[in-house]
Automatic annotation (TrEMBL):
InterPro entries: GIY_YIG_cat. It comes from the Bacteria. This is GIY-YIG catalytic domain-containing protein. Residues 47-168 form the GIY-YIG catalytic domain. It comes from Streptomyces nanshensis.
Amino acid sequence: MDTAVLVSPDRLWSASEVLRRPNPVPPVSGVYGWHFDASPFSGLAAAQLLYVGIAPRHMATRTSSQNLRKRVRYHFRGNAAGSTLRLTLGCLLGLELRRVGSGKRMTFGKAGEAVLSHWMAEHARVCWVEHPEPWTAESELIARLDVPLNLDQNRHNAFHPRLKELRARARRRARELPVTS
């Protein structure tokens, strides 16, 4: 896969564009890349590709029902329990991770998720490329690109240990706190 379409895309899309109707993101399989005009953490450069993702995920027994449109929209307006990108960004921004509901899911709570959504609306931009089997390209992309916000398959990245510890610390702290609604 040509990495230039993600690293130097012709167009980047904002939250307001992706969340409106008609929606510009196609409901198909593909790869998406996240760019930020402000760094979520000191030591990370802004105005570059920091994270790549795929939709759908390919699992041993099936393929998920996700597509580019669903995943990109979810990253912009979902919560940390369903988006590793949101979990990472919230941890980097210093938001408090909490156990919610039954206590098994972790999010930044309504207020924290709103802060994160606002930050992403201001600073995150996304691009995508259609791909019939994106799971076949994911490993190669992560190996070839400097995407410090990806953890899976990205141990070679210099930021990996720091990000992994930051997320682990947030999860440990969340387990110490009471469950919120």
